[in-house]
Amino acid sequence: KQEVTQIPAALSVPEGENLVLNCSFTDSAIYNLQWFRQDPGKGLTSLLLIQSSQREQTSGRLNASLDKSSGRSTLYIAASQPGDSATYLCAPTGGGNKLTFGTGTQLKVEL
Amino acid sequence: GAVVSQHPSRVICKSGTSVKIECRSLDFQATTMFWYRQFPKQSLMLMATSNEGSKATYEQGVEKDKFLINHASLTLSTLTVTSAHPEDSSFYICSARAPATNEKLFFGSGTQLSVL
Known about the structure:
The structure holds two protein chains of two kinds. Chain A is mainly beta.
């Protein structure tokens, strides 16, 4: 059974800082891994998707890396802004096309 | 980008009543939709996979007679919580994969169910 852990559980940083969110998973037999953003009481927004054959994906200030063999992914956010405040979830896709979600990292970017 | 619409966003009901939640893919056809539930400060847990024109596949521990799923068309899946009880209070979210998006999953905005 896939288990996904995200560290840290919560993070508070001043505006402008670069930061790294970590995700680890126990079963490396994955098809891809997605990073999502969830605002309070809202659904999820897909940020980046990395295929199992890829090492990283970039979108604007976001960069996600994947090391499938070691069961790790990181989400790098450059020059953080207050609007980045949200909960960030990683979710590898495994057998049966099923996603397993981590418990998330709650990010707060302060002015 | 692909849009998944979920309705209602919030519902409060009395114990024993049934509640229907709709999930629509607005600009694409989704042969498969997924239903999740999320308790406060916990992650999303997959409840069931909804397949158009066939029976849903439920995850272990999810009562299929309690959570009825219907996927009658390529753009609509519904989740009905039957005879709701306070312990069913949760945040329910649907999702779907849009074609030609490299397997990305798009989510509805969620439904907060409160059973009194």
